[in-house]
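Cross-posting from the modeling subforum.

Setting up a comparison between two proteins and wanted a second pair of eyes on the formatting. Protein 1 (sequence, then structure tokens):
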Amino acid sequence: MTEDQFRKRWDTEKPVYQAWADFIKHNIEQALAASIAPTTLDYFLKIPVKPRLKLESTLIDKAFHRKQYQNPYDDVQDKVGMRFVVLLTSDIKKVCQVIESEESKKFWVFSRDRDYEIERLAKPLEFTYQSVHFVLKATAGNVFGGINILEHTPCEVQIRTLLQHAHSELTHDTIYKPKTTAQPGVKRTVAKSMALIEATDEFFEKAMQDIEEALKPQNDILNLLKKIYTDNVGTGVGDEQSNQLLTDTYIDLLQAPDVGEKISKFLEEKSFIYKRVNERRASKHLFSQPGILLSYYLASKNPAQTRGLWPFEIDDLALIFSDLGDRMPD
């Protein structure tokens, strides 16, 4: 194949490659959103995913000059690609699971071109570039945006942590400059930065585990409240940070191991609360949150402390005491 033939074929097939990448992005994000709920995709992905076609000049340079492939057009697997950037190394696995799932196999055949975990095991004393690279090749019959995707059309998908991405951005321009990167000083500096990133990734993972463990009692209560709210008030229950603020404010009053049972029993006995909450949920924000049910429990069992520590508008608390038929403490 000549360079001119390459250009003509690429010009014809560019819309197919773009449609294939858009199809992959759509399907991965859709499956990922379901798997990480209630975490939102906007929070989980630290950089928006943007499928990008390689420039024609870049493809020619790689296919005919830097690599000199035997089959220049077909051997270049990254004519289009995208990058998923997440916070933690454990988050990388969540994206990989979506790509490798049985559901996804009807859309593509995948291969892992790079896997940082395998590379670490193979060369434990080296600290080098880290990332997971997949090549996804279309199966027959895929259509997106009215465009038929040619079978075997490839797309590169990279998955990195935010720190790995920063390192890659820093060193990208020197990848194809062997005389520069071969210098011992340059190699050592890059290796040190990679070692620091790997250690920081591990600290991030440990910190997240510690945070999740510390928040477990509060999250258990909130999950219980969400279920009770959904079952007795209605769907569309809120999930705003005011719920965490409420449980954090009153955590000292919620330490009993059977506190969940006590809250459930209280609400069962005071079932009129659900009607009051439902009447106000559309016009008063706090009443659309599951934490409002905890507020009734606290106001009934610990009125003085509930009043003294109340972190929101006092008018909402006054309504709660009124519904309970109690006088709000001064």
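Protein 2 (same layout):
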Amino acid sequence: MSEKMVDAASGDFIPADVRQTVVSQVLPQASIGVSRLRTLRRNMGLTAPYELEDADLVVLQLRPFGEQQLWLDGRPAPFVQYDAGTVTVHDLDRNWVADLQGSFDCMHFHLPRQTLEEVAEELGGRRRPQLYLPPHLSVRDPVIHGLGKALAPALAEPECASQLFIDHVVLAFQAHVAQQYSGAITERRRAAAGLTAWQELRAKEYLLAHLDTNVSVAEVARECGLSRGHFLRAFKETTGLPPHRWLISRRIELAQELMRNKDLPLITISQMCGFADQSHLTRTFTRLMGMSPARWQIDLGR
């Protein structure tokens, strides 16, 4: 017997003790739903299967959270520890499953993509905007955090809330997400500056996905829709580092994480982190950290 599928817009696929929801009908055929989900209990278990759809789920953490296991289309998915005010995006045309091990308090903004297209058209942006903010590239967003807190009283007592106020806040959220995370701002407005928010996130996502390979500038620039020269200038303007130095820093961070397991040989760690060999890892690590990997492991054990 096949599993029963639920509607992701309702938030019912997330096991929670408190579930509060408001809806804004931003288009005749599409609405944006906002839900607050929380529990003080641990080990709430797996999320339920949901119907795949052309929509995104923007998740705002109202308090720190990170005790979970996450899968995407049946494969383990990376994530980071989330602080209060952290925002992530789950694309609901793919199958996300979480094993919720810690207590949580979060808001879900269910965002049909056709509502993004409306904003993109108004801003003169690209026709089919796409959000780029997966769980391992989460960011603290004070604007969405503030909008979420503004909606908290309406969520607690929806029967007393003004629909006009709800619509106003949701429209502000919609415009902010479209501009910051979907590339809806035209290239003309940002050409002289750094990367747009979606370009920065896409570039970092692509670099992290190819952490153990020799990725080229042309590949990453193509992902951002830029020439190589423009991409190099914009990436450094945005991050303060050229792409290769940014990637080396991430490789060293991953090496440090793997080196906490002292049974894992350094030669294996160097391969997993994209270094040519163990000596390459040792030279780079020593230059950036001021000590060898072996010394770092000894200090870690003290």
